[in-house]
Amino acid sequence: MRKTLAAFLISLLGISGMNATPFNLQTFEGDVPAGCSIDTIEGVPYLKVQVNGWNTFFDIEPITCTAYTTLKFSYKYDKDTSTNTLPVQAFFQLITADWSAKSSLTDKPASENIKAVTASFNAGTYSKLQLAVQQTQGSWSAIAGPVIYISKVKVVNPFDIRTFEGDVPEGASIVTIDGKKYLKVILNGWNSSFMVKPFNIREGYEATVEFKYARCQATADTLDISKINAVVQLMDTVNKVKNPWGEGMVPSSTGLSQSPASQSFKTITAKLSSSMKLVNQIQFFGQQTISWGPTSGDTIWVGMVSFKSTSPIVLDPEQVDIELPNWMKVVTLDGKKYFQVVLNGWNSTINIVPVPLKEGYSAQVEFKYARCQATADTLDLAKINAVVQVMDTVDKVKNPWGEGMVPSSTGLSQSPASATFKTVTTKLSNAMTLINQVQFFGQQTISWGPTVGDTLWFGKIMLVDQTKPTAPANLNATVAGNDVTLTWDASTDNDGIAGYIVKQGDNILDTITRTTYQVVGLADGTYTFAVIAMDKSNNLSAESKVEGVVVGTSVENSSIVTLTIYPNPVTDVLYIRSADVIKNIAIYNVTGQLQRIMSLNTNTAAIHVADLNNGLYFIQVQTTSSIVTQRIIKK
Question: Is the pTM of this model over 0.70?
Fold first, then answer.
């Protein structure tokens, strides 16, 4: 009686998941679903399924798909097993065990001959398969009775050139040489290329790879290795560029080249093309330097490709270059993009593309913090510190809380956590030489334990140089007639000197890169000169000054200053005094962009400049008799 009831339920549901051992679509092992059979077509096994409208589904051995997984299989639809006369499409759907997620594929029209299919499904782990044949006219119903044959399913996970995880491409193999893994590729002209697991990149990225090259017998007999260039080429097939050799567009790319090819392992580093926004394909080739054609049959061994960023940006929600974990995403707040992180104690940590550091740099980030309901009910925000911690897992330091070694790190902290966006800048630890990991946490100031479930939003994490250059030393003024020659010793800086600002009194004479400057044609009088060093980040040194420089013999005949702009450098308010009436004032940055403009009808003016970024500017003052342009420094 029970057996009859079970059979009745199966007839109602179509093919159900009542098999004891789920059927494995990849191997055809396990219990063949009820009502199905394994048939052989041209020597290849196929699962034969008679579909019953939308009710044909059965349990399968779980298949896990990532965002980059593809499934490959073949199928055909047997039209002769159905009385349907309308055109149809084949329907394949994967379903999670709890039915909470589904991902489907349709092939229109349904193929009556064996057809190979490559498809991507949504990320997830699927434990059920549903098949149907659906009309594409009329009611769009799924019909009952027809047969679908489906081959074994191959799950393909793209190869990751950074870790060697995923499915090794056809024609390549992984070998171990001196304890290190290498990808071994037999070259086939220009055709040794394959798609890889895609990952985003930003401007300023560098790629590094170690590889070596060996000729096959045919090449060795006809061509010396010194006449071959070996190339590992990274490609972006989405963002294309104009074909430099002909018409149309080609993938943007960057070649890591050995010229000539090396028979021993050699490391090559190259800056990635600014046209590239991702890497999703790799190509290997040997190129003859006589005919410039490719080689065939030669072998190249290639190590894992590593990347680092040479830009000052550590993380940027506008240009996401890492795979985000499920607790982290990009959101838009007030028109600006931020990362949103749901905190999980000390465990909210991500790995990033390494960013090398320069001595004296600081890290800067804007972020805010919000409590989850559980925290809000038990702990005031004033009792929480919010921290974005940049870390160096290579250069470790002694664990200050116990035994062993821990990554060197620098915490950018809000104490207490801020419910509104607040920018934090912190000088990086001297123990760090790079940033390759970032941790986020809220820390209670009562138990000093971490919070769980709270949310932190942060913007771009970037490196900033706030280290000032040393002041120019030994400033000397030599007078010859009405000319003065200034000389000084070069300043030093953690990131190099960009130039020197030369001043006469409060007026800037010039910005130069040398350590000498001549002022000619001065009127008789007594002068003060100063020199300020400036680095690449517009950080300014202290002023080196030489005073009481006497030019000529008659100080009483020195010229009368008709326009004075002071103080220079300026921090908050810039004052202007003129013998003539001031009509207009404009301030421009070094690229010519207008920063301030005002109209007046007076002999004095005060301009507030505290909100301007530090650096060099030009102020233009129009009076009733002249227009004067002068350099000013905001610090």
Answer: no
